[in-house]
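Dear H.,

Thanks for agreeing to be a second pair of eyes. The structure we're designing against is below in token form, covering all 374 positions.
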């Protein structure tokens, strides 16, 4: 089989590797689509990655077909079934797994060993995983869309951590892929959501996905969002609006976090969904957090429950994600996919062989780039 290996910053080689053999509860998945996420972009750019972490096999947003199952694999998994892969070790035995926090499993960390390629390996024709990492999906769900199950699963867990409910209000910081996935899920739940995004070109897709209002943080200072909404025709509810139930930080640094905190109602929750690279430190008014009873929560990765939910939401069509796939690139041109995801795409971007880059015109900041397989 062929597999893409990151040899170093900007260096990707397609190697010929043996198809892995099966044992125990392992499952062999024939990959059909795999998204390019921030993790892959960082390794491709060498951003904060040490030389000893190469070579690496990237690609963790995996959708495909069950090709074969090991002798001890779950009996409901059969060859030919379409599925998505939650590429994360969950031992089920450690302190965190037994507390229902399997996203923090102590055995989930994988690192480079003896210069051998390591990593989730979704940019490969086949990937070998454990049965508990495989989630069946509807045969009617296109694989390109199914590849967004992994990021949607992370968002499902983020929204659950906030405690938000139908008819509540949310403010979403950022209208990139993760911000829009939060918006899509919250809209499906009946939550009234506002999006804060400085790029006006992204406001239209946010409105199309249910945003009540899009706000440019340059034009509306922190603390003024509540008054702006109260002054808008119809407001946000029949009563005076006092602030948001929850805020989701999907982009931006400390300034975005302060903006979100200033917009929360008493008893509100700020969910720190996105990681910060490089690390950021921010000052907090602890009395403000105390007297307004604000909760600040981190949300990292997905867990079994959130991945199951994401697979179900996509299969049922409750959350639709096709508009977030800006570009599809065939596997032999995986390096081009990484370049487009990292640098953007314009009308002048040359096509690959036989016009193989499938993109909407005038895209400068792609949402999700997906690598496809025959």
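And this is the sequence the design step returned. I haven't edited it by hand at all.
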């Amino acid at each position: 089989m062929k597999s893409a290996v990151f040899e170093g910053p900007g260096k990707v080689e397609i190697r010929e590797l043996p198809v892995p053999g099966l044992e125990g509860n392992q499952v062999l998945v024939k990959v059909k689509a795999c998204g390019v996420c921030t993790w892959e972009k960082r390794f491709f750019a060498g951003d904060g990655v040490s030389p000893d972490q190469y070579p690496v096999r990237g690609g963790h947003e995996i959708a495909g077909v069950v090709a074969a199952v090991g002798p001890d694999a779950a009996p409901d998994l059969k060859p030919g079934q379409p599925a998505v892969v939650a590429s994360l070790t969950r031992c089920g035995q450690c302190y965190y797994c037994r507390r229902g926090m399997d996203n923090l499993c102590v055995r989930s960390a994988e690192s480079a060993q003896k210069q051998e390629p390591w990593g989730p390996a979704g940019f490969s024709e086949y990937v070998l995983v454990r049965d508990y990492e495989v989630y069946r999906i509807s045969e009617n769900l296109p694989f390109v869309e199914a590849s967004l199950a992994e990021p949607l699963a992370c968002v499902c867990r983020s929204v659950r951590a906030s405690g938000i409910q139908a008819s509540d209000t949310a403010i979403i910081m950022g209208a990139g892929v993760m911000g829009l996935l939060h918006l899509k899920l919250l809209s499906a739940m009946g939550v009234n959501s506002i999006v804060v995004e400085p790029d006006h070109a992204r406001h239209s897709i946010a409105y199309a996905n249910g945003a009540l209002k899009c706000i440019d943080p340059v034009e509306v200072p922190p603390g003024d969002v509540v008054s702006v909404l109260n002054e808008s025709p119809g407001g946000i509810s029949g009563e005076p609006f006092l602030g948001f139930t929850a805020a989701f930080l999907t982009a931006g640094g400390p300034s975005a976090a302060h903006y979100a905190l200033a917009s929360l109602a008493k008893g509100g929750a700020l969910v720190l969904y996105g990681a910060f690279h490089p690390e950021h430190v921010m000052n907090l008014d602890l009395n403000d957090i105390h007297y307004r009873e604000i909760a600040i929560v981190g949300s990292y990765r997905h867990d079994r429950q959130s991945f199951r939910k994401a697979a179900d939401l996509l299969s049922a069509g409750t959350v639709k994600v096709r508009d977030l796939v800006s570009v599809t690139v065939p596997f032999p041109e995986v390096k081009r996919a990484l370049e487009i995801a990292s640098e953007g795409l314009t009308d002048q971007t040359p096509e690959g062989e036989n016009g193989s880059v499938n993109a909407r015109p005038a895209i400068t900041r792609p949402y999700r780039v997906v690598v496809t397989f025959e």
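Two observations from my side: Residues 198 and 217 are 6 Å apart (CA to CA). Residues 346-364 have pLDDT under 50 and may be disordered.

Warmly,
E.
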